[in-house]
Amino acid sequence: MLYSFLTSLVEQYSFLNVFKYLTFRTGLSVITSLTVVFLVGGPLIKIFSKKQILGPIRQDGPIDHIIKKSGTPTMGGIIIIIGMLSGTLLWADLSNIFIWTLIFVFLSLGVLGFVDDLLKINLKNSRGLNSKLKFLGQLIIALIALYILIQFSDHQYLYNLYFPFFKNLILHMGLFFIPFALFVIIGSSNAVNLTDGLDGLATVPVMLVALSFTFISYIVGNTIFSEYLQLQYIPGVGEISIFCGSIVGSCLGFLWYNAPPAKIFMGDTGSLSLGGSLAAVAIIVKHEIVLAIIGGLFVLETISVIIQVASFKLTGKRVFKMAPIHHHFEKKGWAESTIVIRFWIIAIILALVGLATLKLR
């Protein structure tokens, strides 16, 4: 909104030309979302605590975990959503279809997560929304997003799959693109949701993924940089850096309240929306495989659950003491801060590896 207004005044006030620069507006989106989260975070946490909007804790976890987490407010994703919308709506070019597609995915999954959190609170258990209904909701949202991209965006390379480390290895997926994209969005949404089990554990890796894709979307949307790095140039996707920057600022501000010991959990309201929207970003900028590398921590958490379930069903035995894998280390006696910081280190390394694929090809 502010972007359109300020750029319309450039002829009268030439100094406003600075708002045409994508890098400048990306910085503003980070600062805006961060500031908004700081402003609304404290008051909302007090309201949530007063209204007893508390997150039910899994009763099969470590006793120390149950005692520490009990009584902590949830639905902190609302704070992240407010911050993200503030940064994006103020500084993004709202005529860009990619921005609206991402906002749709973010808000829709946020609503789905909100319903899930609400049911957990009302029913006083950690199950929430029926898993089949949850999957159906994610499927419908992802399908609508793909329909928007296919029908209304001029994305010439949407059906292509690009492989990192290879400059000419491109797979045209055809109609297989749809189930593949659905898998990426739904899988990423659930992966972040599974990771969000300890204070700050999901927040920093999400921020690292968003920061990486801020950089990637800017490069892919720039003819000079994309040609230099031998990446496919996609017109209009540079604007996505504003959206990713808003997520970075929101998560950075939320970490202030979510750092151990957390004053609030993001809940499914935050985890589903963040995971799904970042997957949508990767699909638009055509770096889906790079998403799996940069977000490798989320992949690891998901795989640990799959292995645990498969092993128990086939053999009656569990591979891990508890899944997702961060709970396994809790059961082994690791301190929560140790698990969180070590997982952060893994996430940083994976982000660096993912970014290195832009040059190594």
Topology:
Blueprint: H1 2-7, H2 22-50, H3 63-69, H4 77-91, H5 97-123, H6 131-152, E1 160-162, E2 170-172, H7 177-195, H8 203-220, H9 223-228, H10 240-258, H11 267-284, H12 288-294, H13 296-315, H14 325-331, H15 336-356
Helix pairs in contact: 2-4, 2-10, 4-5, 4-10, 4-11, 5-6, 5-11, 6-7, 7-11, 7-13, 8-10, 8-11, 8-15, 11-12, 12-13, 12-15
Walk me through the structure.
The protein has helices spanning 2-7, 22-50, 63-69, 77-91, 97-123, 131-152, 177-195, 203-220, 223-228, 240-258, 267-284, 288-294, 296-315, 325-331, 336-356, and strands at 160-162, 170-172. Helices cover 67% and strands 2% of the residues. The mean pLDDT is 91. Helix 5 packs antiparallel against helix 6. It is mainly alpha-helical and 361 residues long. It has one domain (2-286). A two-stranded antiparallel ribbon has the order 1-2.
Summarize the structure.
With 361 residues, the chain is mainly alpha-helical.
- Cross-sheet strand order for the largest sheet: 1-2
Q: Can you tell me the residue ranges where pLDDT is under 50 for at least 5 consecutive residues?
A: none
The counted number of beta strands is 2
Strand content: under 5%
- Compute the number of structural domains: 1
Structural class: mainly alpha
Q: Any idea what the shape is?
A: globular
pLDDT averaged residue by residue = 91
Summarize the biggest pleated sheet.
2 strands, antiparallel
Could you give the order of the helices and strands?
A: HHHHHHEEHHHHHHHHH
Radius of gyration: 20 Å
DSSP helix fraction: 55-70%
Number of helices: 15
| Head-to-tail CA distance between termini | 39 Å
